[in-house]
Amino acid sequence: MDFAYCFFKFDSGFSIFRIARSTLISVSNQPFVIAARAKGLSQERIWFKHILKNSLVPIFTHVSLIFNFMLSGAIILESIF
Description:
This protein is mostly helical. It has helices at about 1-5, 10-30, 30-40, 45-80. It has one domain. The longest helix has about 40 residues, at about 45-80. It is found in: Cell membrane.
């Protein structure tokens, strides 16, 4: 419970959603997505194969940074107290 609360507190959780939204929007307007639509691929295939695959990198980077900050804060706090 404590881990989930710390991980999804307001500033961290909302920043993850903001980055996910902006990344998904920017990737969905890329030329390779437009080309996939022109080929006639289904929306599900475009979303899962092209858009999500390319937009997960910045999202995972941000989540790992938040996790590293939490872990380093816990180590510092445990060493002090």
